[in-house]
Amino acid sequence: MLQTPAAVAQNPPSTPSQAQQAAQGPITVTDVLGRKVTLKAPAKRVILTQARHLPVMALLTPDPVSILAGWSDEFRTSFSREYQNYLERFPAIAKVPLVARHTADSFSVEQAMALRPDLVVLTARFAGGTDRESVENSLMMKRFAAAGIPVLVVDFFVKPLENTVPSLKALGEAIGQPQRTAEFIDFYQSHMKGVADRLKDLPPSSHPPVLVHAHAGSTDCCNSPGQGTFNEMISYAGGHNIGADVLKTQTGKLSFEYINSRNPQVYIATGTGSGKRASQGLHIGTGVTEGDARSSLQAVIDGNRLTALSAVRNGNAHGIWHAFNDSPLHVVFIEALAGWIHPDRVDEQSARKTLDEVNRRFLTVPLSGTYLVDLKKKP
To answer: Which segments carry the region annotation Disordered (predicted)?
Structure first.
């Protein structure tokens, strides 16, 4: 459970004055592909090709909407509750022009250029590549380069434990917020180190089998992370992802029989709570009460015939907001995992306290709702 009041972040950290930012002159940053990206001045007209990264921007600047020149419709549609909260705080968000739905094939380079951006933020995959060479040779990147429009490649998803800090550093410097960004990076690294220090002498044999049931209830049983991303987070938190043993892709489906044969000791369902509530889906996230989240978690477990798992019988079944993924706030996800997997080493309440601190120190529009829930209510 996490109930956070909307007024919790009324006093965000101070930021450099416009005069100080202007005095910086040209800025050169290095993105996650090692590309040197030069801007004439801190970016004031940014295009987010993947609007899900607006909350990332919000960690680094108190008014992310004021520097949006254009974006995809992803945040407005797939994160509708979060969008409404931003709309209430920043009414101008309703007028931000659209340049795409939420995929690269719907992205219009012409529309983006017409908005006169001084920075385009995207991921390598959105640009059509996987590494520096393939990205720079993509038609999209060549067209932006020919127009003299700087493009910054970030990554909070493919290699989150490796690329989060350099992505934040480059983005914060590019928008003229190096001090605030450094504060958040220090916060992020200290919490990541805290988990690592508590688990550093843990032998691999003490990593219990874990099932992360991704987008629980929205499909037949049971979607699971395979390689990369979530698997790295589960390992970091001292668990063994049973999906990685059979799935060679980032995600896939595990059979009911396989799950029962592995009998995971920890069960974690994920969901976003976006759109209308599915009768058997995990209802969690912005605007959701603890009771609603817990009852939907029970419905997911019952509906997928998972009640016989040791994790469920022993009270080690939980739900978590899927959107902590593809965000620096995966630190909350990792702390929650570590607390559920190794409660003898990591305080189960630490993730909730971390999110409270994020709301208080960094987010002008706090996350308000239930983002973590236990199947069995704690005394």
So the answer is: 1-24
